Amino acid sequence: MSQARILMHDVADAATQNDPSAAERQLGLAERLWGNATLRKSLLILVLAVVWQVYATALDNPLLFPTLTETLATMLDRVRDGTLPARALTSVKVLLMGYAAGSLLAAALTMVAINTRLGTDFLETMTAMFNPLPAIALLPLALIWFGLGNGSLVFVLIHSVLWAVALNTHSGFLGVSRTLRMVGRNYGLKGFRYVAMILIPAAFPSILTGLKIGWAFAWRTLIAAELVFGVSSGQGGLGWFIFENRNLLDIPAVFAGLLTVIIIGLVVENLVFRTIERRTLHRWGVHH
pTM here? Predict the structure, then answer.
């Protein structure tokens, strides 16, 4: 009987060695919760909110640093009267126009660059020249060229998006393996079909990174530009809302505007781009 037990233990040990999953234990509730990235990030945001509230309460100077509760109360008031939603919608509309135009131009330049040597030289030269140039520095020229309208803002947004997206897309295309390139050529793929069916799926992690960077550049450029553009035209989005309330010394409203900018950024990052990742990178198996 003892020999049978020993034999059973030996078989179980061998099965565990051949199948590591057999040795895995059931995770506890705390471990499963901690493994949830959304929960961890929410906890981090909650900690930052508590730190904000405690520090502002200890400082006790609303003109320098209002508390989180004061900021949220002001934000709720401005949402109820329609001011914040209207300003946010204005900013998002202009942002989408500039972001879409910049991304399309980046795609066109990259397609030319990947198919011709002269296009590669042109893209590399233009990127080296204009990528280090802050987009906001072009706003005075944009106001002269395009006047007091959305055209000036769209122009600086295109500049902020174009080079980041083009640079990352081109780098991703160049990093595609020679094997995949040969497969595409063997199937007779050329031009747009070659780029769409071979290069884009293989280089999509780099392309998505470029789109994220372009979004971040465009969002902060727009808010900075609206601080100047709003002063010039008497209208604007969230940037003008922040500037206007700063002049009125309504600091809780200034923080409410800044918090709105942050919330929109978090929503785009965690809903829009995360959804794209799940439906492309994870599904295609190219997520690193």
Answer: 0.77
Residues 6+ apart with CB under 8 A from 2: none
Separation CA 258–CA 62 (nearest Å): 15
Q: Is the pLDDT of residue 22 over 50?
A: no
Q: Which residue has the higher pLDDT, 3 or 88?
A: 88
Q: Are 208 and 276 in contact (CB under 8 A)?
A: yes
Decide if 182 contacts 122 (C-beta within 8 A): no
Structure tokens of 10?
């030996």
What is the average pLDDT value for the chain, to the nearest integer?
A: 80
Which pLDDT score, from 0 to 100, does residue 256 have? 92
CA gap 233, 139 in Å, rounded = 13
Cβ proximity of 273 and 216 under 8 Å: no
**Would you state the pLDDT for residue 70?**
92
Give the separation between CA 162 and CA 164, rounded to whole angstroms. 6
Domain spans in the chain, listed from the N-terminal domain onward: 65-284
What is the average pLDDT across 94-105? 92
CATH classification (class only), 65-284: mainly alpha
